[in-house]
Design a protein that fits this description.
This protein has about 375 residues and is of the alpha/beta class. The protein is globular and about 65 Å long. Strands 1-7-6-5-4-2-3 form a seven-stranded mixed β-sheet, with helices on both faces. The longest helix is centred in the C-terminal third of the chain and has 19 residues. It contains 13 helices and eleven strands. α2 runs parallel beside α8, α9 runs parallel beside α13 and α10 crosses α13. Bound molecules: pyridoxal-5'-phosphate (PLP). Pyridoxal-5'-phosphate binds next to α3 and α4.
Length: about 375
């Protein structure tokens, strides 16, 4: 690979696609089986094998997977579900789709995942479930979350959309502990199908329900115009599945590359006082590096940093806004100041360019530019 020139723009994210993706996409195109064909089933089998679970149900997006998970757990009108305000909006929206209420609880200042103590304190009469988000690929405190769920009789839906490949403190793969879990494959994710997602069921009954609901409520043995109940069109097409099969074949290498880049960033950023690098692991966990979110020192002018990096051709993004402050969640009564840890992280986080084909020279360029834009 030839090194990109010094002034070439550096994007925030970029999918890593190669000849194998082209080959499998062509295979599907030539087969004429663009939906519900063998490539979809192959993707599901390969994904389940990679993750080490019995079954996996492919869906059209991570959001669709979460929505079906909420339905499978029976969460609906009047039910309260404990979740994180520091997440992508879909992890709360999936509850709203079914009339359930997201009950936000603050996050751990280091990992930025749901703080189990805050969740415990928020349990009330109407609490039916807990929806931990493994944010930025950092595994949530699942042992504590499971303990809380057992004590209060709650279901668990894992939002693993950002965390494929993460291993938690007990050595278990993220997405394998909750009653159900959802992964996502948007192009900035650890692996991509363009759009797409995967739901992990807790058993065959769940799996059959998910497969029916993603396909307009049809059962496997039903005709196209037979519907056993309410359903959606949440199918994943076979062209997307072909991308998924190809990406899975080298997912281990893609994850290793991301981890190597994160280590390089940490090394380079160590000398910049106004920048706090994300924690790699607090104990024996293994983070799956999704994005590279640094935190700027309190009082830094983040917008100015983004603008100055952009002048140097370097993309960066304020990341993430807190969910509870979006208009449709304010309608439920949420306000500034309720979740100080999440709000502080949200105000200071900045995602830097991060993708497998990024070179060491590009990491160096980003860090040098960042150092120049910040007061020393
Ligand atoms: C934490 C989290 N939840 C849910 C989703 C939704 O996934 P999708 O965009 O595939 O619907 C995402 C994806 O961006 C995410 O980051």
């Amino acid at each position: 690979m030839t090194a990109p020139p010094d002034n070439e723009p550096i994007p925030l994210a970029a999918p890593d696609l190669g000849e194998r993706e082209e080959q499998l996409v062509l295979e599907v195109l030539r087969s004429g089986r663009l939906s519900l064909g063998p490539m979809g089933e192959r993707f599901e089998r390969a994904f389940a094998a990679w993750l080490g679970v019995e079954d996996a149900v492919a869906v059209s997006s991570g959001t669709a997977g979460l929505h079906l998970g909420v339905r499978a757990l029976g969460w609906g009108a009047g039910d309260e579900v404990l979740t994180s305000p520091f997440s992508f909006v879909a992890s709360a929206n999936c509850l709203l789709y079914e009339g359930a209420r997201p009950v936000f609880c603050d996050v751990d200042p280091e990992t930025l995942d749901l703080d189990p103590a805050a969740a415990e304190a928020a349990v009330g009469e109407g609490t039916r479930g807990i929806l931990p988000v493994h944010i930025f690929g950092y595994p949530a405190a699942m042992a504590e979350i499971e303990g809380l769920a057992t004590r209060h009789g709650l279901g668990i839906l894992e939002d693993a959309c950002e965390a494929l490949g993460a291993i938690d403190a007990e050595g278990r793969a993220v997405g394998t502990r909750g009653n159900l879990a959802a992964f996502a494959f948007y192009p900035n994710k650890q692996m991509t199908t363009g759009e797409g997602g995967m739901t992990i069921p807790s058993g065959p009954e769940d799996a059959a329900r998910l497969r029916s609901e993603r396909n307009q409520g049809r059962a496997r043995d039903m005709g196209w115009l037979d519907h056993g109940g309410l359903g959606f069109n949440y199918r994943l097409g076979d062209l997307a599945a072909a991308l998924g099969v190809a990406q899975l074949e080298r997912l281990d290498r893609l994850l290793e590359r991301r981890a190597a880049l994160a280590a390089l960033y940490a090394e380079r950023l160590a000398g910049i006082e106004a920048v706090e690098a994300p924690v790699a692991a607090r104990g024996s966990e293994r983070r799956s590096w999704f994005v590279y979110p640094v935190r700027l020192a309190a009082g830094s002018d983040r917008d100015a940093v983004v603008a100055r990096l952009a002048e140097r051709g370097i993309a960066s993004k304020a990341y993430l806004p807190c969910i509870h402050l979006f208009p449709h969640l304010r309608e439920l009564g949420y306000r500034e100041g309720q979740f100080p840890v999440a709000e502080d992280a949200s105000a200071r986080s900045l995602a830097l360019p991060f993708f497998p084909s990024m070179t060491e020279a590009q990491v160096a360029r980003v860090c040098e530019a960042l150092a120049e834009t910040l007061p020393s």
